[in-house]
Amino acid sequence: MSETKMRYSKQREIIYEVLKNDMSHPSVDSIYMNVKKIIPDISLGTVYRNLNLLANQKKILRLDIGDGVVHFDARITPHYHLICDECGEIKDLFLDESLISVFIDKVQKESDEHIHNIDIVFHGTCQNCLKKKS
Ligand SMILES: [Zn+2]
Ligand SMILES: [Zn+2]
Questions:
Q1: 79 CA → ligand 2 middle, Å
Q2: Which of 5, 9, 2, 25 shows the shortest CA–CA distance to 90?
Q3: CA 75 to CA 118: how far, in whole Å?
Q4: Does residue 68 share a domain with residue 37?
Q5: CA-to-CA distance for 113 and 108, rounded, in angstroms?
Q6: Of 34, 61, 76, at which residue does a domain stop?
Q7: 64 and 6 within one domain
Q8: How do residues 31-60 score in pLDDT, each as one tens digit?
Q9: What residues are paired with 73 via a beta bridge?
Q10: DSSP annotation string for 12-75
Q11: Which of 42, 43, 83, 128 has the highest CB neighbour count under 10 A?
């Protein structure tokens, strides 16, 4: 492996590690800030390119939760997301997959199209915001 190639794979490894240590579903900007602490001369474009590459390799998830910002998630086990409408925090929800498949089956019966999967985002108020209110 050439030195440049090694440098690139090392960068990707660090970016992946940084994301793995941040379960808050960070945006590219916030991942970039944390990667910069380890690789000060890295560019935002490089971080973004590597995140997309990792997402294409299915090592991480690219999330579109409708807030106009792309979020990344190193947790790739099946799960769903709950967005706090007060603070914008993204929480992981682990749902019984049978619940979802029953729902998909029902919807499939109503549709002539073929459904492959479902992309649900839940909205609510997180525990922290609930505590602040009480
Ligand atoms: Zn909240
Ligand atoms: Zn998640």
A1: 6
A2: 25
A3: 18
A4: yes
A5: 8
A6: 76
A7: yes
A8: 999 999 999 999 999 999 999 999 999 999
A9: 61
A10: HHHHHHHHHT-TT--BHHHHHHHHHTTSTT--HHHHHHHHHHHHHTTSSEEEE-SSSSEEEES-
A11: 83
**CA separation for the pair 83, 105 (Å, rounded):** 26
The boundaries of the domain holding residue 122 are 77-134
| Domains of the chain: total | 2
One-letter amino acid at 58 equals K
- CA 95–ligand 1 middle distance (angstroms): 20
Partnered with residue 91 across adjacent β-strands are 82
Report the predicted TM-score, pTM, of the whole model to 2 decimal places: 0.84
From ligand 2's centre to the CA of 39, what distance in Å? Answer: 26
Distance from CA of residue 116 to its chain's centroid?
20
- Ligand 2 midpoint to CA 112 (Å): 31
